[in-house]
Write a structure and sequence with these properties.
Blueprint: E1 14-19, E2 22-26, E3 30-33, E4 48-51, H1 56-59, E5 69-72, H2 73-81, E6 86-89, E7 94-97, E8 100-106, E9 112-113, E10 121-122, E11 127-133, E12 136-140, H3 150-157, E13 161-165, H4 174-184, E14 188-192, H5 204-214, E15 218-219, E16 227-229
Parallel strand pairs: 3-4, 4-5, 5-6, 12-13, 13-14, 14-15
Antiparallel strand pairs: 1-2, 1-16, 2-3, 7-8, 8-11, 9-10, 11-12
Helix pairs in contact: 4-5
The structure holds nickel (II) ion (NI) and manganese (II) ion.
């Protein structure tokens, strides 16, 4: 938090990592992002589901929720055609759902929906989200490579916490995520999208040491199911 923005009435929200890229953010509302895990259960009593792109390790259990889904237009259209509640949007736009604001950010990645049968379909471009709830700001980068316009996310939205992939191969690895953390300027970074599969094995503690040695940013390495309060 920027000292100029300090406010004693600031509300507390919690961030729970369920594994991979799946987080529950809870304040006055409960939001789940990218509901896919390899172990444990995903809570279904949420107010909003946010999906960054169509890949199975993010779209996950989206079809098992009754809550509205905030996602890229192409995916939202398909959900609506299936009779689901979905709020479509696109890069750079902001919508408010149940008092929670979602701004869709770019992600350097692809998107394909595999859950619809043999061939699946193109899910539009991949994205990330800046989520503002109870005047707190969280950035979930989705799956992405590093891009320098992450500086615009800092300048425009001032995220307090950044959820960044570090797994490599399909996304940024730790070296790129270190630079991303500096571009975004959040006080706290939580690494995600690593160690779920052998192809994305990384040493998150090493990432933490490297970031904290060279910047003022705090890295919170969570275990699946762990919650932090901000
Ligand atoms: Ni992906
Ligand atoms: Mn992924």
């Amino acid at each position: 938090m920027n000292i100029l923005e300090y406010d004693e009435t600031m509300k507390t929200i919690t961030i729970t990592w369920l594994g991979h890229s799946c987080f529950v953010i809870e304040g006055s509302k409960r939001v789940i992002i990218d509901p896919f895990v390899t172990e444990g259960n995903i809570p279904k009593d949420v107010d909003i589901v946010a999906v960054t792109h169509g890949h199975a390790d993010h779209f996950g259990e989206t079809l098992s929720f009754s809550a509205p889904v905030v996602t890229m237009n192409e995916i939202a259209h398909w959900l609506q055609s299936e009779g689901r509640a979905a709020e479509g949007m696109n890069i750079g736009g902001t919508i408010e759902v149940e008092g929670v604001r979602f701004t869709m950010t770019p992600a350097l990645h692809s998107s394909w929906l595999e859950c619809t049968g043999q061939h699946g379909f193109y899910g539009g471009v991949a994205a990330g989200f800046v989520i503002r709830m109870d005047d707190r700001v969280i950035y979930h980068a989705g799956d992405t490579g590093l891009f320098s316009d992450m500086k615009l996310i800092r300048d425009l939205y001032h995220p307090e916490v950044a959820l960044l992939p570090i797994g490599g191969r399909y996304t940024m690895g730790p070296a790129e995520a270190m630079m991303a953390a500096e571009f975004i300027g959040a006080d706290t970074v939580i690494p995600m999208h690593y160690n779920t599969f052998p192809a994305i094995e990384q040493d998150a503690e090493m990432f933490k040491k490297s970031v904290e040695r060279t910047t003022d940013i705090k890295v919170q390495v969570l275990v699946p199911g762990e919650t932090i309060e901000i």
